[in-house]
Amino acid sequence: MEYITQIDKERLPRHIAIIMDGNGRWAKKQGMARMFGHKQGVETVHNITVAATKLGIEYLTLYTFSTENWNRPKEEVDALMTLLVDTIAKETPTLMSNNVRLETIGDINRLPEGTRQKFLGCIEQTSRNTGLTMVLALSYSARWEITEAMREAVRRAQNGALRAEEVNEQLVSSLMTTANIPDPDLLIRTSGEYRISNFLLWQLAYSELYFSDCLWPEFTEEEFYKAIVDYQKRERRFGKTSEQVKN
User: What is the mean pLDDT of the chain?
Assistant: First the structure.
């Protein structure tokens, strides 16, 4: 039986976040260079975006490039930036035809100017779409985000616009780059690794975690649906008892 037939459309996760891991290892298994894996990973992004749109998922956040990834060999970073530009050019018509809105979280000022402008242009072009919101975490890390939020809080305090007793969870959430995005209901990580890797540390507090042994280029629509079926079998209590949730 296909997993999509087991999905309850009335209990879909509103927001799914994915750590797309394993491109390089997949390429190595094929006897190819790492960039071959990254290119194949782009095809998986396309397929999973279409699958999420088909189901009616509202938000899909993809961990695309971390702040730590800037430390990779320059040749690989340059190639990834070129791939990003090429992908934006290729996929923008698909995003438009599928009513997908593109957003980003991260320090995109670190991107090469040409790459950044192409990216911002795609965000503007899709800004009026009303279907799936696809969020690319680009030049992002959770510790960077939390540090930036603390800096903003200190600036407000220094200007007299914030008092210590006004600091609460709602304020902290409002200072995150995801302020206008609901927290993920489900986090998927591929490649058999069991780590969060500095991704959405504040937002994942009550997310359900799903780990797949598939390398990202191998992660199919069926694997995506399988993760959602697994999610729907769980009881989300948010600190309450089972009896409280059921009542």
Answer: 94
Evaluate whether residue 101 is within a structural domain.
Answer: yes
For the chain, how many structural domains are there in total? 1
143 pLDDT above the threshold of 90: yes
Domain that holds residue 220: 11-140+184-233
Active site residue 78: no
**Is 69 a known active-site residue?**
yes
pLDDT, tens digit (0-9, with 9 covering 90-100), for 198-242 = 999 999 999 999 999 999 999 999 999 999 999 999 987 656 556
Q: What is the pTM of this model?
A: 0.94
CA torsion angle for 237, 133, 136, 146 (degrees, to 10)? Answer: -50
Residue type, 37: G
Active-site residue, from 47, 69, 129, 198: 69
* Residue 86 belongs to domain with CATH number: 3.40.1180.10
